[in-house]
Every structure is written in structure tokens, then in C-alpha cells.
Write a structure and sequence with these properties.
By secondary structure, the chain is α/β, with parallel strands linked by helices. The chain has six helices and nine strands, in the order E-H-E-H-E-E-H-H-E-E-E-H-E-H-E. The strands form two sheets. It has a six-stranded parallel beta sheet. A three-stranded antiparallel beta sheet has the order 4-7-6. The longest helix has 20 residues. It is globular, with a radius of gyration of 17 Å. 43% of the residues are buried.
Length: 246
């Protein structure tokens, strides 16, 4: 397990610029030998990154393969859809072949069926790459105030998952149901990049980055050999003891 990198920025624009540099480096390194496979996240924090990426036609988009770290069980055009967010801010603005984008099929059927279908797509993709285990080149994640990441929530049975790559989160406390990448596939990634902003994330960020509180799902993101990067603004970082500034 690698130690997390902490990079603190004065504002969200600078944070997004750094995230763009991480994306570009990973994309160019990966496409030199094949494809660049990335998992996107939803929420407000990655939107500025997506808009900056959309203004970069020089990036190797035709070699980029897009999956999603998690998704709500809503139609693809729903306001809560992570796919809709990524499509409107990034995917429809770049020269990315439609077959390179793999959203979850969430418009109908049970959450369990949607998760099983997504795992089939994941296994097919990574099997075609010739890799013996799933290895995302980059996984983008956010951090909830309760310490959740992707759709892995505190106390969830999914935190003990060891074999499945995608699973359904169905709970009365979580509406609508969701599907999510599981810790086994996230922790195989070559790079995991958390994007965190806002004062409301300061306490939980400290518990994740410095205390490594095992009760918080984000603390369980521990890449086997890849980079674990926290890119945060100064408001989210105010409870951290050590500031690794660029």
C-alpha cells in the first residue's frame, strides 16, 4: 500500500488545473502502449476539470476508454445521472468514439441486474486488453461528508466485497439505489485521484488522509501499487496537520 499524496491549492480552479495535469500524464503514458482507461465520478467538484478537459482537443481521445465509478439508478438524461453530467460537460464536446464510453444501463431492470451487466462489460474490456487483472489507468473519486466515496457508504456490506468488480447498493437510507465499482477494482488502479473542495469536507478529509479511519469507506481506498492522490482546496485542507504544497 502506498502513502497518499496531498496537494493543496488556493482555489478550485488551481485544483482543476492540477487534476488536468494528472489526467494528461496518465493518458499520454497509457496510450503509448495501448488504451487509456479511466473511471469518472459525479458531483460538483469534477465539473471544472471536465470543462478544462473539453477544451483540450490535443489529448488522445480516440484511445481513451471511459467508465464510471458509480451511478444512480435513474435514466441517462435524469438530473441526478453522473453520465448526464459527464456527457454535457465533457463527452459530447470531444472527439471520443461513442463505443469508447461505457455508462451503466440504469433506465430499467433491477439494481442487481444493472450491476451484473456492468461487471460483464468491465470484464470483457479488461479481458480484451490482455491484462490478468483489472487495472484502471486512472480512477476519479470524490469524498462525501460522511466519508463515502463512489457509492461505497459507511457500514455497507459492499465494503467486505472481495471478488465482484461492480455491485448494487440498495438501502432505504440511500435513494435512489446505485451501482458502484467495488474496492477490489478501485484498489487495482494505477492511479486514484480524489478531488475534494469546501470547508464542509475539512473534518472528514483529516479522518481519511491522516487518521485513516477504517469506519470511513474512503479510508479503504488503498491502491496495491498505484498512486493515491488527494487534490484539495485550502478550505477542505484546513484541518490537516501537514500541507504538501505544489
Amino acid at each position: 500500500m502506498v502513502d497518499p499524496e496531498k496537494h493543496i491549492f488556493p482555489d478550485e480552479d488551481a485544483l482543476a488545473d492540477f487534476a488536468l495535469s494528472v489526467w494528461e500524464a496518465a493518458a499520454r503514458a497509457s496510450t503509448g502502449t495501448g488504451k487509456f482507461t479511466v473511471a469518472l465520478s459525479g458531483g460538483k467538484t469534477p465539473v471544472l476539470l471536465y470543462r478544462k478537459l473539453a477544451s483540450r482537443p490535443d489529448l488522445p481521445w480516440r484511445e481513451t476508454i471511459v467508465f464510471f465509478a458509480d451511478e444512480r439508478l435513474v435514466p441517462g438524461d435524469h438530473p441526478w445521472s453522473n453520465f448526464r453530467l459527464a456527457r454535457e460537460t465533457l463527452l459530447e464536446k470531444i472527439s471520443l468514439p461513442p463505443g469508447n464510453v461505457h455508462p451503466a444501463a440504469t433506465g430499467k431492470g433491477s439494481p442487481e441486474a444493472a450491476a451484473e451487466n456492468y461487471e460483464i462489460i468491465l470484464r470483457r474490456h479488461f479481458g480484451e486488453t490482455g491484462k490478468t487483472a483489472p487495472v484502471f489507468d486512472l480512477v476519479l473519486l470524490g469524498l462525501g461528508e460522511d466519508g463515502h466515496t463512489a457509492s461505497l457508504f459507511p457500514g455497507s456490506r459492499l465494503l467486505q466485497e472481495e471478488t465482484r468488480w461492480a455491485a448494487a447498493e440498495v438501502s432505504p437510507a440511500i435513494t435512489p439505489p446505485r451501482i458502484t465499482l467495488t474496492l477490489p477494482i478501485i484498489n487495482r488502479a494505477a492511479g486514484v485521484l480524489f478531488l475534494v473542495s469546501g470547508r464542509n469536507k475539512a473534518e472528514v478529509l483529516k479522518r481519511v488522509v491522516e487518521d485513516r479511519d477504517p469506519a470511513l469507506p474512503a479510508s479503504l481506498v488503498r491502491p496495491v501499487s498505484g498512486r493515491l492522490i488527494f487534490a484539495v482546496d485550502r478550505y477542505a485542507a484546513q484541518c490537516l496537520r501537514v500541507h504538501d504544497r505544489l
